[in-house]
Fold:
Amino acid sequence: MSTPNGNGRVITMGQAIKEALAEELRRDPTVYVMGEDVAEAGTAFKVLKGLVDEFGPERVIDSPISEPGITGLGVGAAMTGMRPVVDIMFGDFSTLIMDQMVNQAAKIHYMSGGKLKVPMVLRTTMGATRRSAAQHSQSLHAWFSHVPGIKVVIPSTPYDAKGLLKSAIRDENPVVFFEDKMMYQLKGEVPEEEYIIPLGVADVKREGTDVTIVATSSMVQVSLAAADKLAEIGISAEIVDPRCTFPLDKDTLINSAKKTSRVIVVDEGYERYGVTAELASVIADGAFYYLDAPVKRMGAMDVPIPFSPVLEDLTVPTPDTVFEMAKALCGAN
Amino acid sequence: MSTPNGNGRVITMGQAIKEALAEELRRDPTVYVMGEDVAEAGTAFKVLKGLVDEFGPERVIDSPISEPGITGLGVGAAMTGMRPVVDIMFGDFSTLIMDQMVNQAAKIHYMSGGKLKVPMVLRTTMGATRRSAAQHSQSLHAWFSHVPGIKVVIPSTPYDAKGLLKSAIRDENPVVFFEDKMMYQLKGEVPEEEYIIPLGVADVKREGTDVTIVATSSMVQVSLAAADKLAEIGISAEIVDPRCTFPLDKDTLINSAKKTSRVIVVDEGYERYGVTAELASVIADGAFYYLDAPVKRMGAMDVPIPFSPVLEDLTVPTPDTVFEMAKALCGAN
Amino acid sequence: MAKAKSSKPAGKGAGKPAGKPAGKEDVEDLLQMYEQMVRIREFEDKVNELYTSAKMPGLAHLYIGEEAIAVGVCEALNSDDYITSTHRGHGHCIAKGAAVDIMFAELLGKAAGYCGGKGGSMHIADQANGNLGANAIVGGSAGIAAGAAFSAKRLGTGQVAVCFFGEGALGQGLLYETMNMAQLWKLPVIFVCENNMYNEYTHYNETAAGTLAGRAEAFGIHTEEIDGQDIRVVNEAAKRLVERARKGEGPSFLICNTYRYHGHHVGDIDRAYYRPKEEELEWQQRDPITILADWIIGQKLSDQSVLDHIQADVRSEVARGAEFALNAPYPDPSEVDTNVYA
Amino acid sequence: MAKAKSSKPAGKGAGKPAGKPAGKEDVEDLLQMYEQMVRIREFEDKVNELYTSAKMPGLAHLYIGEEAIAVGVCEALNSDDYITSTHRGHGHCIAKGAAVDIMFAELLGKAAGYCGGKGGSMHIADQANGNLGANAIVGGSAGIAAGAAFSAKRLGTGQVAVCFFGEGALGQGLLYETMNMAQLWKLPVIFVCENNMYNEYTHYNETAAGTLAGRAEAFGIHTEEIDGQDIRVVNEAAKRLVERARKGEGPSFLICNTYRYHGHHVGDIDRAYYRPKEEELEWQQRDPITILADWIIGQKLSDQSVLDHIQADVRSEVARGAEFALNAPYPDPSEVDTNVYA
Ligand SMILES: Cc1ncc(C[n+]2csc(CCOP(=O)(O)OP(=O)(O)O)c2C)c(N)n1
Ligand SMILES: Cc1ncc(C[n+]2csc(CCOP(=O)(O)OP(=O)(O)O)c2C)c(N)n1
Ligand SMILES: [Mg+2]
Ligand SMILES: [Mg+2]
Structure:
């Protein structure tokens, strides 16, 4: 478990992301940020507010509402010496940029026999329960994770977000970085000193012995809350956060499964053909002879996200539903 | 196993698809076909050749090279009384239409509280080994399968293709229909009489007792060939074809797994976060207490499809690799 | 609550006569348009109030200041003509004939809403009045509108489709793909660009090169650019373009210059960093409701008391509508997974 | 095999002088352009032969008939200027300086190819000469070209980027999004539309409404439409536009009218159903190589024997190149999963 030594410095996830960008913009003149309303407005979520003041409108660039275009521009700029950070306001708009990301960015290094490369970061958002309805609430990281040539980061804490975003910017490949909209205000310790976190290393957020809960992004917080409740009834849950869906730290997941013999995978993407399917089948294969029960999956309900709060809240895993699932799984012993 | 009673009438998969379209165009005046070079040219694969002669250019419509546009037009037409069949030449171009399919077509029925609906079919292709390289060889059905509101069909025989396409056109929802480019010349029995095959019913293509091979699209043929070889060494393989990734006939898959206790899932999409992950985890969960070995997955290698034939042929499962996997799995008894 | 707007004749090409000589406008029509603009204004004010008092989930994008466009255009349509709408869609929805109580219910996520609470502000649709839905993907409905026009043409119904969008949508490639096909196939679709000068928090000068009109003219599409604050101008233009479309002369592009008085959404309060207060005040001098009221009074077509009466009636209708929605029940939890498939 | 084309000075804004008065053209330049066009023609003929004799995997889209465009434009560029290319990309690749033997190796999927055999005909790239790659997604490289121009501008290198595409790509929305940004930010990118009149098997009249020029003019982009068969015209236009771009005057759109003599791809033999034989023959009367040869001879800038000599040399270079590629080894199977990540 990577313990941030923040010496008590606590900041929000939004601040951590802005710090990572500011540090990399300062360090490397080829880094730039482009997106809709990223400059003066500092994004629709105000996460980048102030960045343009330090780096100017040539490096923090407001764009037209042209997601495919700014992504394509990023790919070309990345191929020719820049390190673009492209901002796609809502992860739902990923639908518009798949060609540039998947047929272009992801494949150019390979198709050119290794001669060209595309060191770009695509920052976007995920997560529901913001009353934003079906076109502004999806978590589409499964799609990018499916595509060879792309790396995918889904951080769950301010500390991880900062260290992973810095790695993503320095990476030589296209990296998609998913920020959960509901977590921008989440606070956590982040050290003053510079650090980076390598891509592809899982983090055990809480150690335990009875059941492994593999959780991503905001589902880590949900699962930690569930673990507290489980502890009250004597069940010790281990929370493992892969932090990246690719590269995927299979060993850490499988080893935890071998240790506890019971696994739940929790992710906020649609359950069907989603991230939980891959993680569950990797574990079910790798820890087959150690498992006492089937690996259970909890994703978003397979429905377009409804607007009505009473319905929307039913669609994502909560501390209660994770608790119930874990209890049942352990009771089934 | 749905035995086509073709009375000996043998046609190709391409012909079966054309017949299905012709019959539905004849039956229902609101059906139309739109796509690039679908009319006189009869598509790049010549599958629809001649259709425009019977139905005219008002119903078999050549479009500009505007995949998002023709898909969007299809969505709007479907909402207002037509039954569009939109032709997207290569499945790789799905990248361009995800917004119209996923944020629009898939969600409109739900978002409108059931008042609007989008009865459209998107026909597109999948499959590698055609020496078409990275941007013309992908099998991206996992993406659509991930999205609530969409149905996905991946037929493996002329008989299935015809019956399923007719169902897809009559369905009240957006249905994506994937045709393997390499299978257009595949022959099979197809009856003269009209028939339809409901969406969401798996088909056991070969019965067996030692190992279940769940295979999709062209991988069914690959697996049948593997089964022949397996029979030679005394291993009896059951081949189960889900035919649709959604609705998914989980019961048939799980029951076969329970019967044989060993399962391999074979699909031509990228393995990582792909269709094999969902099928494997559904089976690993549903048949957990019956399995003698972990469920094994075989997808396309997680690389952009290379052009060079010597490399490309390594990227997809073959009768040999499926045979070896099954042998190893059964040997592990 | 009674349907807010008297329904108009529907059916095959049953358009109202367009292009009447100036000065001979039908008073009833003008009063109807006045009422509809006021209805939108009052509705949106109430939405803002509901948001501010934390009674509304999520956000909303107010149409205040732009009322003449939705109303001026929709008054030129039949009730079975189609529209597609945007994230800033309440105005279009009302103008096309929706009832405010059912709308409020939708915005509050209640079962009685137009979409059973599943759509909300950004996805409100009203099929019965031809509103194919608001769309939270900027530009995302261009294809849908053209597709509806395609249906109308193929089925020979004489309907037209109007695609409303903000000038920000001109950044989306889909729009150009659609315009090209609409013109190729002479589809009865009217692209209405509501140019309120801002894409969220960025002036359109920073996001749109060249001319807006040129974007459609390139495809040979008939294009007009008009004052979007004067509903008589909007309505006359719309009638012309609807007539063209019904006659099979194909698509058109109507640029309406306008302004949103409020923020991009209800939460956008501090706007000084992206647009000057003076600009806001200046535009409020050209208020569409006032302009029409002044014309009506000035031409002695009616008098202030009639207008006041309309306003008072609408205000109480809106208040009752909000009250209805506030008291209405939420959908049953079992609704969460219905309507995923038809 | 020696590099096919003498490399030109690279580096910060080191452009060749443009716009020399007509008639004073540099003979060496003309002969160089002649040689490059012949190289493309001979290369493509050999590709066709390889395909017909089943020695080439997959398909290829021949550039024959369109040579003046790639060569006329690329001769106006420095070797470190960027281009992006299309499925019909062999001509661009050669014109930008690639060697035919390494190209053949790529087309045959051999390890010695530009992309180690991983790219093939539709993805051939030649980074050393600024060719950022062919692209099998129609219109898919518009953003990439503009992004390269963005880099050049930000890094102050003085480079320009040329985006080649067929008129069919005008159907793709991405192009319009990119043009808008290129003009907003005055990026040094030249959009070169090779209008050969067919999108695969469909005439562009059926797929493009309005005018082609209007598509870029809408964004305020400087636009020229020229005869793509006369390389002197193409080259002069390209020099002008490159100079504009280098001076910071922003993007431009160059429409070159041309024709592909062969089918859409090598397998497209029976074309009568979509275009008349007479049309094909007519266009062959305006052959770019013949037009230049006639000019060179007519102006007595050189004589037929020199041209014949060039042709003979190139032909044997191409023959040797194909031979080299046919004999070259395939990549090692272990290559299949290298280069997935950098
Ligand atoms: C494809 C897409 N990109 C970005 C957004 C976020 N967004 C919502 S409204 C808006 C501005 C739209 O401006 P405009 O089209 O002018 O409409 P207005 O809000 O001014 O009415 C943006 C960028 C979105 N909803 N969809
Ligand atoms: C996005 C996309 N849609 C469709 C295709 C299939 N396709 C390949 S070439 C082509 C025609 C291109 O026409 P044009 O752009 O005029 O180029 P030309 O072949 O005439 O040089 C089409 C439709 C593709 N490769 N990419
Ligand atoms: Mg606006
Ligand atoms: Mg062409």
